[in-house]
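Deviations from the work plan: none for this task. Representative record:
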Amino acid sequence: MKKEEKKLTAAELPIGGIIEAGTAVNFHTGSWRSERPVWNKEKCINCLVCWISCPDSSIKVVPDERKTSIIAGIDYDHCKGCGICAKECPPKVKAIVMEQERK
Amino acid sequence: MIKKVYSKSKLVAKTGNEVIAEALRQIEPDVIAAYPITPATEIVQIFSQFVADGVVKSEYIAVESEHSAISATIAASAAGARAMTSTSSQGLSLMWEMLYIAAGLRLPVIMAEVNRAISAPININADHSDTMGTRDAGWIQIYSENSQEAYDNIIQVTRIAEKAKLPAMVTMDGFITSHCMEVVEVYPDADVKTFVGEYKPERYLLDIKKPYTLGAIDLQDYYFEHRYQLAQAVRDAKDIILDIAGEFERTFGRKYGFYEKYMLDDAEVAIVIIGSTAGNVKAVVKELREKGIKAGLLKIRVYRPFPSEQIAKELAHVKVIAVMDRSDSCSGAFPPIYSDLTASLYSAGVVGPKILSYVYGIGGREFSSEQIVDVYEKLGKVASGAEKPFKGVEYINIRIK
């Protein structure tokens, strides 16, 4: 069961339609997906092209032991399955492929 | 150019436009973005000279249209600046969609507006059609009878807007006030600066430590609450306006309220009016009083928020009232002030006075003292029962047939 959203009253709402930054994190848009990107750690060369290309900041990046950024996986809570990462992943590498979302 | 810095209050001869420019110099807002338009041109022309001469530190943004002028002003205000603009007539019309956005975003944008007729046909003279058209935009509207009031109002409204978190416009009648030279008491720079103080917004977009989104889409589940907040803020602005007026009186010695009463307390017949014509009506009232006619005047200064309950109380004892509108809303019913006033009286249970609707002065048409006397005579005849009140709207000094 989805929890009922508590809606703020006119007295409680920030005036002027101000919305605090960073609230998109709270919306799990991952449920919109019909296809999911699947990342293959063995094939990945950590070029970060997918990370730059992702419109939803859903490519997770962490520092490795030399403090260089490497791919850590995909944030399925927010990934909408657009497939840009799979398209942009260099053809010789093919570390990300799209698969049908399982119901 | 006017460069003098006064050391104490001084009586000077200035036009309405010049004295507004003088007030803007003293207030020294962070940003002014404006586009010239008759009859308000001089305000920003003189102010831009202050900027060019280094008299003020304000940023002046020359833009390509009024839509850009108000947009730049809104953006500056959202960024955290004290931002002002000035316009008239067609310029205000071009600002239209942004007026509602300034109010909806709750930004204290200040506008010096000079009342002028709107096209078509083209006309540059005074009437209130331009600002009356924007009466429901969520802006505070303060109308000025003369240059002194315009000067005092723009100083007060800077504080009012920032406290109420609402945009506000101060208006004066085109040419009659904007171009007519009058004696005005100008206060010392330091006193004005102290009175308006520094603008310290609670939230502003350049505050990078507390980032937020402004102007996002807001549909059926929240929009209603936000618009209610705006409507309520306009209602709540009444107390703020009186507070600031009180402080202004203690500082500079001039008393202001929502309206000015002139021989109204024991009046049997009264005119309700806005703007410069109130001065002529006062002169007529004085003459009529000498003849023993109990005439009175209520000049509305603050039109938005409309001081509905207070006006109903002030007019409850009057037998016949003429509401003089200098704009015609083309509604098929009644012009704006009449509509607001009759609704206010009816809602307050004041059903005694007979209320007549007059439209005058459109496009700068003359409304002479003799014609003001005629209006009072009509009111007197209705009061005594000699004549019946007319239905609908009566137009003054017009050729209809």
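The first strand of chain B starts at residue 10 and ends at 14.
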